[in-house]
From TrEMBL:
InterPro entries, per database record: AAA+_ATPase, ATP-dep_Clp_protease_ClpX, ATPase_AAA_core, Clp_protease_ATP-bd_su_ClpX, P-loop_NTPase, Znf_CLPX-like
One BP annotation, GO: cell division
Pfam families in the record: AAA_2 (PF07724)
Key words of the record: ATP-binding, Chaperone, Hydrolase, Metal-binding, Nucleotide-binding, Protease, Zinc
GO cellular component, one term: HslUV protease complex
Organism (species): Candidatus Shikimatogenerans sp. Tser
Protein name in the entry: ATP-dependent Clp protease ATP-binding subunit ClpX
Keyword Cell division part of the UniProt annotation: no
Length: 397
């Protein structure tokens, strides 16, 4: 009789345990127990270390960090900074301090036109907080009985992004984009995505509120083994976002009816920023069930980007599209310069496309396509003027 691991016989060890026909000695049991205990302690301590670090973050510091990467949207950045601060203070209070005062969770709804930085803001925040973060598209989910993903897949992706660490998963962030596409059909002039939209909202209710959700995942760290995990969503922050097309018209009509003696049609600035007047009632009228909207108490909105905003996105922010292209040229020991007029021309083209900052990446790819294709033969230093940029874009836009 000998140990299957260390090969010691019965005279060299104190005890043998037989399991499934194999003998394991007491020395090996203690050895593996220490490894398991160390691993479990590390997983729990990783959460404690994270929460201790997050205690030092203040809303003003979060906002300043966002300012380095996101142009404009100051009010939205303030709301998100405060919401993130409050959320993790809530977790610290409820999990670490365990005081008698229980702070309730406040999920967020982020509204604004496409290309105004909604997703990018949240990616930037997740980089600062270093918590598990996942982005999902609401249009991919359907209620039970329809072809499509179940809402539980949201937590599967979050669990995978956390490195299969359940404790970290349960303090992560979920961003559900294009939430406006799952509004239910009603008698208004707003048309929803499909008939199962209300069912998806119903499916999300318990998850948003905080409940135990059972998920089935394939753990790549455990030899692709399928496992069932129970995730507590009580401390997961849910942020939903969307463009909410035509909602601004509904808000405008509502305000026009309620503001006696004051016509908003004469105020062009306010007409362009209707989202700042949004209420939960507007969202219910848009096609969301009251129970769903009730679980999203915080509303933030982003505004359309103007010429100045887009110019700053190119020239001022960290990791801008211009800096990324310069880095590619640096790796080839080459440089390029762009004139102010060429940048202004790109910005004007972007404004005409009407999809915000998202258009910049496509425009820059068109401008640099031929240059990068011939990167091995071009001069060490090149200068791009408006005439060149115009020649690359006029045939396309």
């Amino acid at each position: 009789m000998s140990c299957i691991f260390c090969c010691r016989d019965k005279y060299e060890v104190y005890l043998f345990i037989n399991q499934f026909g194999y003998n394991i000695c007491n020395n090996c049991i203690v050895f593996f127990y220490k490894i398991l205990r160390k691993n479990l302690d590390f997983r729990n301590n990783s959460v404690m270390r994270l929460l201790n670090r997050l205690q030092k973050l203040k809303p003003i510091n979060i906002k300043r960090y966002l300012d380095d990467y996101v142009v404009g949207q100051h009010e939205a950045k303030k709301i998100l900074s405060v919401s993130m601060y409050m959320h993790y203070k809530r977790i610290i209070n409820n999990l670490l301090l365990k005081t008698k005062v229980s702070i309730e969770k406040s999920n967020v709804i982020l509204i604004g036109p496409t290309g105004t930085g909604k997703t990018y803001m949240l990616k930037t925040i997740s980089n600062l907080f270093k918590v598990p973060f996942v982005i999902v598209n609401a249009t991919s989910f359907t209620e039970s009985g329809y072809v499509g993903e179940d809402v539980e897949n949201i937590l599967c992706k979050l669990y995978q992004n956390s490195g299969y660490n359940l404790k970290l998963t349960e303090i992560g962030i979920v961003f559900i984009d294009e939430i406006d596409k799952i509004c239910k059909k009603n008698g208004s002039d707003i048309i929803s995505k499909d008939i199962s939209g209300e069912g998806v909202q119903q499916s999300l209710l318990k998850m948003l509120e905080g409940s135990i959700v059972e998920i089935t995942v394939i753990n790549t760290k455990k030899f692709m083994r399928r496992e069932i995990v129970k995730v507590n969503t009580e401390n997961i922050l849910f942020i939903v976002g969307g463009a909410f097309v035509n909602l601004s018209n509904s808000i405008y009509n509502r305000l026009n009816k309620t503001q006696i003696g004051y016509n908003l049609m004469n105020d062009k600035y306010k007409k362009k920023n209707m989202y700042k007047y949004i209420t939960h009632k507007d969202l219910i009228s848009y096609g969301f069930i009251p129970e769903f909207i009730g679980r999203l108490p915080i509303i933030a909105n982003t505004n359309p980007l103007n010429i100045k905003n887009l110019k700053n996105i190119i020239l001022r922010v960290k990791n801008s599209i211009l800096i990324q292209y310069k880095r590619i040229f640096d790796m080839e020991n080459k440089r390029f310069y762009m004139s102010t007029r060429s940048i202004e021309y790109i910005v004007k083209k972007s404004i005409k496309l009407g999809i915000g900052a998202r258009s910049l990446k496509n425009i820059f790819s068109k401008v640099f396509k031929n240059i990068i294709y011939n990167i091995n033969t071009i001069n060490k230093v090149i200068f791009l003027n408006k005439k060149f940029v115009k020649s690359q874009l006029n045939s396309i836009y």
